[in-house]
């Protein structure tokens, strides 16, 4: 009968595991693809609503009219979408497009935490804070 071996204590040093890295890359790539496709679908539906409602209005290019103030804040965009306005849907799609890489960074933090890579968790968290501040920090305007 073989003698039972006593388990040895292994150090908990960071060693990247390729299957986790590949899986994380695949998840993040799919996240970006899905985010872009969702935002494109929202922009397309907003464009269809806008064209349906404003197709017969004459275009006046002599006077520049900027974006209405309703579309300069995130709550204003959501209010416009709730009112069924096509321009609001277009702006919402653009917000989704902007938010997609921010969500990717957040998921990267989770992936690095699973791998127990504290240095990358700290750097990625710092990047996420900067992205969120630039997106939300200046009075919810864009």
Describe this structure in words.
- The protein is elongated and about 85 Å long.
- The mean pLDDT is 81.
- The protein has helices at residues 18-54, 74-82, 86-114, 118-136.
- Helices cover 66% and strands 0% of the residues.
- α1 packs antiparallel against α3.
- The protein is built from four helices and no strands.
- With 142 residues, it is mainly α.
- It has one domain (20-52, 69-136).
- The longest helix is centred in the first third of the chain and has 37 residues, at 18-54.
Strand content: under 5%
Query: Which word captures the global form?
Result: elongated
Could you give a short account of the major beta sheet? none
Q: Are there runs of 5+ residues with pLDDT below 50, and where?
A: none
Number of strands: 0
Structural class: mainly alpha
Radius of gyration from the CA trace? Answer: 23 Å
Helix tally? 4
Q: Count structural domains.
A: 1
List the helices and strands and how they pair.
Layout: H1 18-54, H2 74-82, H3 86-114, H4 118-136
Helix pairs in contact: 1-3, 2-3, 3-4
Task: Please name the defining characteristics of this protein.
142 residues, mainly alpha, 66% helix, 0% strand, elongated, single chain
Could you provide a short overview of the structure?
Helix 2 crosses helix 3. This protein is mainly α. The longest helix has 37 residues, at 18-54.
